[in-house]
C-alpha cells in the first residue's frame, strides 16, 4: 500500500511522464473513437439501405395478403419473414448501444487527456501592434451596425412570415360556412336523396301514417298519374316533390305541390351537350330513368340512363347540363346522385371506365374523378357518412367496398368482401357499414378498423333491395320475400320472416318501425326489435319498386302508375 | 487545428447516429389481443424532491465558497463533475432552474395550476445566490453549463461584433418561452433542451444532433448555449450585475500586469481603457438621444410585427394544432387521421367549441406578440445604447453580467491576497 502511494506520488511529480502518458492516451482513445465512429456510420448506412422493418419482400407479401386474405401459407411466410426482420432489428439495436457506449468512454478518455495537456499550457495575452483604441472604436461601430442590421432582418422576416401565414381558423364559424350546402339538420327535415337525408334508409320525420289503402282511398291525401315511366324514387324539399321520367324519346323532370299533387312545373331535359345519338342498353326493370334525383334545397340534379346529367333550380330554370358518356351497362345505369357541400357525387361504374365522379354543383365542371379500375360494374348507390367525425362516401362493388373522402375522392379504406353483380346499396349505423349481395354475403365493416369484416352472413341474401340498420340490429329483405334480422355487432340471426311477395324497394327505419314495401305495393310495418312483430300491412293498389319519401305526417310513394301522398 | 476539427466532426456525426431513438412499430394484432395499457412512471416522492432542493442548496453554497473563499478552479471543476452526475445523469436534467422559468410563468397565467414549492425553490435559489455572489450557479451547478464546460479544449475569442449580436438571442428565446408558457402552448425550453438527450441517453435525432453540434462547437467556442441561447441566463445576467460580492480576478489590487487578459474563454474581462473618450462627446450624446427617440418606435414596430405572427405562433398550442388538423380533415385536404383527431372525435366533443377555444388562444398569442415585440424592441434599443456609451475601466475588471464565476482567471493573477506579487510555476488550469 505504502509502495503504491509512493509510486503515485512519484508519478504525479513526474510531469514529463504524465504529459507523455496523456498524449498517448489522447491519441489511442482518439483513434479508437474514430474507428468506432466509422463502424457506427457504416452500421447506420447499412441499416438505412436494408431496413428490415421496411423490407420490400415483406411489403409485397402484405399486399398479396390484402387481395388473398384467406391464404394460410402466405400468412405463415409473412410471420417467418417478420420474425427475421425483428431479430435483425434488435441485433442492430444491440450493436448501436454497445458501440455508442464504447464511443462515449473513448471520447471521455480522449477529452480528459486533452484537457490535462491543455491545463499545462497558459493562455498569454497577445502583444500585437494595433492600437487598442482604434480596435475598440472599430469593434463598437461594427457591433452597432450588425445589431441594427440583424434587428431589421428579424423584423423583415417576421413581416414576410406574417404575410405568408394564413389563418384557417379566423372565424370559428368559417369552417361551417365553408361547407356550401344545407346543414345536416336541414337535410333531415327533408328527403333530398335516394334512401333519405343520410342515404342510409333512416327517416327522421314523426307522426307518420300507419294505415292506408290505395284502392279504397283510405289515408290517401292525393293521388296523381305518373306522367312518364321511371323507377327513380321521390325526393322532397319543403313543399315541393321531385322525380324524373324518361322514355326512348324524351326525358323530363317534374315538380309537384306536396299539398295537392298539382304539377308546379315540368321541364324537359334536352339539347344536352354531348348527348349520345344511340340509346343505352336498359332492361325493363331499370328503364331510362332509374337514378333518383338529388337536391340541396337550392337546385335539383338529375341523371338519366344515357349519361345525361342536368341541374335546374327549384323553380325549374335550367342551370347546366352535360353528358357523362354513354354508360356501357347491360341492365342500364341505376346508381343515384348524392350532394355533398359544393359537389355532386356520382358512382359511375360502367364498361371499362369505373369511377367516382364529383361535379361542381354550380357549373357541372369535374372537381375530381377517382378511377375505380379494380372493381366490376355496380348498380348500387353511394352511401354518404357524415356528421360524426370524418366524412366518407362508401361505394359497394365487386370485389371491393371502398370508402373515399367526398371532398377529394382520395381513398380512405377498402375491404374485399363483395361478389357478383352488386345492386343493393350499403347501410350504416353506429360506425358500422353493412354491404350485401346475392351469391356473396352480408358483411359488417367497422369503419374504425375496416380491413377485416366484423362478421359475415350468407343466407337469404338480397339481390336488389338494400339493408337498413340501427345501432343494434340490421334488417335485410330479399327479392324472394324473406326479411332477416341480425344483431349488428355480432351478426347473429335474431329472426327471419317469409312474406308472400319479394322486395325490390328498400326498407326505411323511422323510430322503431320499419316500413318495407313489396313488389305488389304492400307496405309492411314491422317493429325494429329482436323479435318479429308485424304492426300493419297497407296496400297501395298497384305494384311498386321505388322507395317512399317520409316527411312529417306524410309518406310519398311512387307506384308503377301513380304518385301517392299518404297522410291525414 | 484542421485535424482536430475533422476528427471532432466525424465523432459528432457518429455520436448523433448512436443516440437516435428507434422505436419498433407496434404489431397490428387481429386476434383480439389487447395491448397492455402504457404505464407512466410514478411522480418522484416529495421527500426526494426536497432532497433535490437540499442538494441544489448545498452545491450552490459549496461552489460559492470555492469560488469566493478558496478561489480554486480545481474545486469548482469537481463540483461541475458532481452536477453533471447528479443533476444531469441521475436526475436526468429535470427539474432544472432553466426550465422552471416556464412553470413560474405558467402559474401566473393559469389559476388552475398549483406550482410545487420545490419548483419555486429551484427557480429562486440560483437567482438569490446570483444576487449576492454572482453566477456561481452557472460556474458549476447547472448541468447544462457544466457539460459544455468540460468539453472546452481550445477556446477562441469571438469578435466583438459577433458576440454583440449573438448575445441578443437569449432575450428572444426567453421572450418566446414566456409567451408560449403564458398561453399554455408548452414549455419550449424543455422541449428544445439540447443536452437532456445525453443525460437520458435517448432523444430525437434533431435534438441529439443539436446537442452534439453545440458540444462540438463548445470545444472552440466556450459554452455556446450558456452565452448565446440560455433564457435563464438572461435573468442571471441581470441579477449578477446587481451583486455586491462578485468574484474578482485579483484577490487584492490589480497591478495591470496583463497576465489575465486572455485567460477568460467567455470574453468576460474588460481591459483598462484610456483616460480620454476616443470619440467626440457631442456626437455620442446626439447618437444616444436619437436612439432614445427611436426606442418607442422600435418597440411598437417590433410589437406589431410579432403580433402579426400570431397564426404560426399559436399553432404550437395543442388546441390550435388540433383544431387545424380537424379543419384539414373535415375539408378533405388530408385523408389520414391522426391519433389526436381520432381521440378528439371519440370523446364526442363539439368541433365548434374546439374552434372557439383555438380562436381564443390565437387572440391571446396576438396580445402576447405585442408585449414580446415591445420587449425585444426595448432590448435592441438598450443594446445600441450600451454599444454607444463609454464606460471607463482603470484596471482589468470582470463583466459582472457575463462572468460565469468559473475561476479560470484566478490563477493568472500574480498578486496574493496580501497584495504581494508572487510567481507561480506549474499551475494547472482545467
Ligand atoms: S471567473 Fe474569470 S475566467 Fe471565469 S468567467 Fe469570470 S472572468 Fe471569465
Description:
- The complex is a heterodimer of chains A (568) and B (430).
- With 568 residues, chain A is an alpha+beta fold.
- In chain A, 26% of the residues lie in helices and 29% in strands.
- Chain A contains seven helices and 33 strands.
- Chain A has helices at residues 2-13, 15-49, 56-67, 72-119, 132-164, 174-178, 184-188; strands at 202-203, 220-225, 235-237, 240-246, 251-257, 263-268, 294-295, 299-303, 308-313, 318-323, 338-340, 343-350, 353-360, 366-371, 383-385, 392-396, 400-404, 411-416, 427-429, 432-436, 442-446, 455-457, 468-469, 473-477, 482-487, 493-498, 508-510, 513-517, 522-527, 534-539, 549-551, 554-558, 562-567.
- In chain A, the strands form eight sheets. A five-stranded mixed β-sheet of chain A has the order 1-27-28-29-30, with no helix packed on it.
- The longest helix of chain A has 48 residues, at 72-119.
- Chain A is elongated and about 125 Å long.
- Chain B is mainly α and 430 residues long.
- Chain B has 19 helices and two strands.
- Chain B has helices spanning 2-19, 46-70, 73-90, 97-109, 117-133, 136-141, 143-149, 160-166, 169-183, 188-191, 196-200, 205-218, 224-228, 231-241, 281-307, 310-314, 318-331, 339-346, 351-388, and strands at 269-270, 397-398.
- Chain B has a two-stranded antiparallel ribbon.
- Chain B is globular.
- At the A-B interface, helix 2, helix 4, helix 5 and helix 6 of A face helix 1, helix 8, helix 15, helix 17 and helix 19 of B.
- Iron/sulfur cluster binds at residues 247, 263-264, 266, 268-269, 398, 403-409 of chain B.
